[in-house]
Task: inverse folding
């Protein structure tokens, strides 16, 4: 009897789904649902390829492993070892949910929670991936003071206003005051974090988790032919290496170069030793005698040379710590590219979803455009993308997050 009512339920569900499917096919041509191929009776993916294992690719891998369990094969194809490639490997590591003007960004708190969950998972394998459990944004003008005081007033659980004396005691720099960002806001060593996150994916299913190093000129059509699903999250490599044979201009994104200076100090005695932001940033590295100063925003095709980089960084960060600029020795200049999405009504939000450019693989998804918000957004957007992949259909996700198809 119980068995028979179960069968009846399944039958009724199938009829309802069929009717819904027909209803969907009568949507107006401009509705997102009608543009997306609807697969009613899809099967779950079993063999997934992810091209690019930076913040975007690894967050997606983790959420897919959690959703689909140990039996799904997840292969990450990357040009580099874990944590050593792309923008992620040169990021400042600053995690917080506010815009430069101190406004809470769209999905900022959901993003913070999601990234904190990923950090918990990564920390089990790499406890040193968190460098500081707070950071400081300082005010350099009266306008900044008003903006940051408002942030502290509206979001007291994350931001605390500090008058100049208190700011100096807390982080060694004075300015006109500033906010301390805490309670889930962190300074992360992104390379160590990604290594920890990959370990978390791998230990859930060691036999079915593969990291494969590839050449930039890989024939992707051939390489991905045996996979049922392909996710493209290769950061600027998507365009520089012509993975889709497409240019960044074919998407609502532009590539913005970021160069940073790693400085070495003979002793850490006078260095502020905290992460401080004011347009540019000065942030600690795992070695206590080293500090990272970042980053340029370069739109021109020719990169700034070393002197040009130091000049731009010094102009905007000298006041954070004159000591670092006077006494520090340059170890190296690092370079990376932000894939910066076009600004819309919610600011710069990432690009996720079924790819129209499926000439490489018939079932492809895209994850790019993390802009300068990789840490706050990779968790939540990787989570949403993995739901699309599991459902093999964007419809229900678009009902919950209608703005996510902004780029289509
Ligand atoms: C200088 C700088 C500082 C930043 N600081 C911060 C910060 O403090 N906080 C913050 O939230 N965000 C920061 N960002 C932004 C953040 O780094 C990015 O948003 C984020 O790293 C993008 O992640 P991604 O996975 O999309 O791309 P990427 O990090 O670029 O990862 C792409 C991956 O794909 C691989 N790949 C590339 N080409 C190929 C190919 N042809 N085949 C296979 N694999 C390939 C790469 O090796 C890499 O592993 C910064 C960015 C820059 C440039």
Result:
């Amino acid at each position: 009897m119980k068995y028979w009512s179960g069968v009846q339920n399944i039958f009724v569900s199938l009829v309802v789904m069929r009717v819904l499917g027909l209803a969907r096919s009568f949507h107006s041509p401009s509705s997102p649902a009608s543009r997306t191929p609807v697969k009613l009776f899809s099967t779950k993916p079993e063999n997934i390829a992810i091209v690019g294992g930076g913040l975007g690719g690894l967050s997606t891998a983790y959420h897919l492993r959690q959703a689909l369990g140990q039996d799904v094969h997840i292969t990450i194809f990357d040009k580099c070892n874990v944590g050593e490639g792309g923008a992620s490997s040169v990021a400042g590591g600053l995690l917080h949910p506010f815009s430069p003007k101190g406004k809470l960004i769209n999905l900022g708190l959901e993003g913070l929670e999601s990234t904190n969950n990923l950090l918990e998972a990564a920390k089990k394998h790499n406890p040193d991936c968190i460098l500081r459990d707070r950071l400081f944004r300082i005010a350099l003008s009266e306008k900044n003071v008003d903006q940051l005081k408002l942030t502290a007033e509206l979001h007291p659980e994350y931001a605390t206003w500090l008058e100049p004396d208190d700011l100096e005691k807390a982080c060694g720099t004075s300015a006109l005051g500033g906010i301390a960002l805490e309670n889930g806001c962190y300074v992360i060593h992104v390379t160590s974090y990604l290594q920890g996150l990959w370990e978390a994916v791998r230990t859930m299913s060691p036999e079915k988790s593969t990291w494969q190093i590839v050449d930039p000129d890989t024939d992707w059509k051939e390489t991905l032919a045996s996979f049922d699903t392909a996710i493209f999250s290769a950061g600027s490599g998507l365009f520089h290496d012509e993975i889709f044979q497409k240019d960044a201009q074919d998407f609502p994104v532009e590539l913005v170069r970021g160069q940073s200076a790693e400085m070495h100090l003979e002793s850490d005695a006078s260095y502020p030793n905290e992460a401080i932001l004011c347009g540019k940033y000065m942030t600690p590295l795992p070695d206590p005698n080293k500090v990272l100063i970042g980053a340029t925003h370069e739109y021109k095709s020719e990169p700034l040379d070393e002197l040009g980089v130091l000049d731009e960084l010094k102009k905007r960060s000298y006041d954070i710590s004159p000591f670092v600029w006077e006494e520090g020795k340059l170890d190296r200049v690092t370079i990376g590219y932000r894939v910066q999405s076009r600004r819309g009504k919610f600011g710069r939000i990432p690009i996720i979803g079924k790819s129209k450019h499926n000439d490489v693989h018939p079932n492809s998804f895209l994850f790019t455009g993390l802009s300068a918000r990789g840490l706050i957004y990779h968790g939540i957007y990787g989570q949403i993308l993995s739901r699309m992949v599991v459902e093999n259909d964007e419809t229900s996700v678009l009902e919950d997050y209608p703005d996510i198809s902004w780029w289509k």
About this structure: The two ends are 49 Å apart (CA to CA). The first strand starts at residue 47 and ends at 51. Residues 1-41 have pLDDT under 50 and may be disordered. The first helix runs from residue 2 to 25.
